[in-house]
Write a structure and sequence with these properties.
Blueprint (H helix, E strand, L loop, with lengths): L1 H24 L5 H4 L5 E6 L1 H4 L6 H8 L2 E4 L5 H4 L9 H12 L3 E8 L19 H18 L4 E8 L12 H6 L3 H12 L4 E6 L5 H16 L6 E4 L2 E3 L5 H13 L3 E10 L31 H20 L4 E6 L32 H8 L5
Parallel strand pairs: 1-2, 1-9, 2-3, 3-4, 4-5, 5-6, 6-8, 7-8, 8-9
Helix pairs in contact: 7-9, 10-11, 11-12, 12-13
Bound molecules: alpha-D-galactopyranose.
Length: 376
């Protein structure tokens, strides 16, 4: 009489094991599906990725992301390298890819002090432009680029990084030649070029108190001048110990209270040591490679993976809590191998700032982020 029970037991153990094995083999859930009721999930793609030079990446992006930002090819120096030369091909391919796959395309970026050629600010003899001439040049650039992708690019980073770290207006050529209203004009030109696109101000460290106050004031001032701004992009180039979670929380609340959508537009977490405790994304900085600055040249140890996973989960809990205000979270890159943080602020390091490793495999941080959506 004992026999049948044993067989039944063995059978159920076997079935159980098969189920567990199947469950383990199950492909990971899609990031965009996990957050479908909360906010868009975006990534930034490079031109080689768009050109299909990385096998598997395009399909992978379509699976996990529903918003796309061009990592570089829409920046002024790339898309408009000479006064009468536009190079639209890479941006055209990027926008077409987003279109084909129903992704919310972000144009990055129109007005920025970096990656903008010197000729933008001078005449053909090399003399500084007058205010009117620079305004005309800005208008022409914005009309041409925004106009070309009208209806396809759904949101534009109109102003990128206009505040300095102390919260003052960054001393750029635009500010020097045109004056403060260059910001207002940039929004107006973009609005005229595509009245239906969302228009954003995008910057780093604007969740830290000094810069946050200035950013809030700047948004208020522009709004009081009748400028219609749709959202604020917090770049989100983060570290393990920076910024304070509470500052992220407060930033979402304060920008949200201005009636602005809040988005995290370039999210990554730098887990490597930071030279001089620096933060942000000032790409003009670079430090020499020293061994102690590159502690994980082969792989990230489990303990560090775990810490990264916890840090990501801490942040996503805040994003989810404020999902009435947060409209999008975009990662700055698809996988660790692509990240700019392998070369900034120290060249040649091996960094691990994203949710997917160099083989497009989900890291513990991927699963910890997915878990956060389950909170009430
Ligand atoms: C800034 C810019 C991005 C990119 C990153 C670093 O955050 O907005 O376009 O250049 O720096 O790659």
């Amino acid at each position: 009489m004992k026999h049948p029970v044993t067989i039944r037991m063995l059978a159920s153990v076997a079935i159980g094991s098969v189920l567990i094995l199947l469950a383990c083999k199950k492909p990971e859930p899609a990031l965009k599906d996990a957050f479908a009721d909360r906010f868009l999930i975006g990534t930034a793609m490079s031109v080689p990725q768009i050109m299909g030079k990385e096998p598997g990446t395009k399909e992978f992006v379509v699976k996990h992301f529903n918003s796309l930002t061009a990592e570089n090819c829409m920046k002024w120096e790339k898309i408009h390298p000479q006064p009468s030369v536009y190079d639209f091909a890479p941006a055209d391919s990027t926008v077409a890819f987003a279109d084909r796959n129903g992704m919310f395309m972000i144009g990055h970026c129109l007005i920025w002090h970096q990656q903008t050629p010197g000729w933008v600010f001078t005449d053909s003899l090399g003399n500084p432009l007058t205010r009117d001439a620079l305004l005309a040049r800005m208008k022409d650039h914005i009309y041409t680029v925004v106009g070309r992708y009208k209806g396809q690019v759904k949101g534009w980073d109109v102003l990128n990084e206009v505040l300095a770290d102390d919260g003052s207006l960054r001393k750029t050529k635009y500010l020097e030649i045109i004056g403060e209203d260059y910001m207002q004009k940039a929004f107006e030109f973009a609005r005229e070029a595509d009245p239906d696109a969302e228009l954003y101000y995008n910057d780093y460290n604007i969740e830290t108190p000094a810069k946050r106050d200035s950013a809030v004031k700047l948004m208020r001032t522009l709004q009081s001048r009748g400028v219609k701004i749709d959202g604020v992009g917090i770049q989100g180039h983060y570290h393990m110990d920076f910024p304070e979670l509470n500052d992220i929380d407060l930033a979402i609340q304060q920008f949200g209270e201005l009636g602005l959508k809040v988005m995290f537009t370039e999210l990554d977490i730098n887990i490597l040591p930071r030279p001089e405790n620096m933060s942000g994304a000032d790409i003009s900085k670079n430090f020499e490679l020293q061994k102690q600055m590159n502690p994980y040249p082969e792989s990230l140890p489990d303990s560090a993976q775990q810490k990264l996973a916890e840090r990501y989960a801490d942040m996503f809990r805040i994003f989810v809590k404020h999902s009435d205000k947060v409209s999008r979270v975009t990662f700055w890159g698809v996988h660790d191998g692509q990240s700019w943080l392998n070369n900034w602020p120290v060249k040649g390091r091996t960094n691990y700032p994203l949710l997917f490793d160099r083989n497009l495999q989900p890291k513990p941080a991927f699963y910890s982020v997915i878990e956060t959506v389950k909170q009430p």
